[in-house]
């Protein structure tokens, strides 16, 4: 019986140590809402630029979040770039991220905001010049 308890303790300690390692890697594991400029300049390239950084959703030929569905923008909520229907808009995502790599790990939901919301947000101005 005491041998079973000892084995259980080692398993529990291993689990908590492993959990700590995953936490230290920058993965938060919890959903958080982040809002900012959603940019889709060319096929396969998607990211969200918020007050903290550019969160990578997908890079053509590289990292791609599986099963990603972009938010649906109305014409007055989307700024098209010269490359056709690609461009940018203002959006919020409920997502988990890896803070070390700036990759989006999972998106629970997303919703569109008026362009004016991002344009007025002083924390997003550093990204605005790159988009407009």
Question: Can you describe this structure?
Answer:
The protein is an alpha+beta fold and 132 residues long. It folds into 2 domains: 1-26; 31-131. Helix content is 27%, strand content 33%. The protein has helices at residues 2-24, 115-120, 125-131; strands spanning 32-40, 46-49, 54-58, 78-80, 87-98, 103-113. Strands 1, 2, 3, 4, 5 and 6 form a 6-stranded antiparallel β-sheet that branches. A hairpin with a 4-residue loop joins β2 (46-49) and β3. The longest helix has 23 residues, at 2-24.
Provide a brief overview of the structure.
With 132 residues, the chain is α+β, with helices and mostly antiparallel strands. It is built from three helices and six strands, in the order αββββββαα. The protein has helices spanning 2-24, 115-120, 125-131; strands at residues 32-40, 46-49, 54-58, 78-80, 87-98, 103-113.
What is the count of distinct domains?
Answer: 2
Distance linking N and C termini: 69 Å
Q: Whole-number radius of gyration?
A: 19 Å
Poorly predicted runs are 4-26
Average of pLDDT: 82
Q: Shape, please?
A: globular
Percent of residues in helices comes to 25-40%
- What are the secondary-structure elements, in order, as H or E? HEEEEEEHH
**Main sheet specs:** 6 strands, antiparallel
**SSE class:** alpha+beta
User: Tally the helices: what do you get?
Assistant: 3
Range of strand content: 25-35%
What's the number of extended β-strand segments?
6
């Amino acid at each position: 019986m005491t041998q079973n308890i000892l084995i259980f303790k080692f398993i529990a300690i291993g689990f908590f140590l492993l959990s700590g390692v995953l936490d230290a890697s920058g993965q938060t594991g919890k959903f958080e809402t982040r809002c900012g400029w959603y940019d889709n300049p060319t096929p396969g390239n998607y990211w969200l630029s918020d007050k903290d950084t550019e969160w990578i959703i997908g890079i053509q030929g590289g990292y791609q979040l599986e099963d990603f569905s972009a938010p649906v923008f109305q014409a007055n909520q989307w700024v098209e770039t010269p490359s056709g229907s690609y461009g940018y808009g203002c959006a919020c995502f409920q997502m988990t991220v890896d803070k070390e790599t700036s990759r989006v790990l999972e998106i629970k939901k997303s919703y569109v905001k008026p362009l004016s919301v991002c344009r007025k947000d002083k924390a997003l101005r550093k990204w605005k010049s790159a988009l407009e």
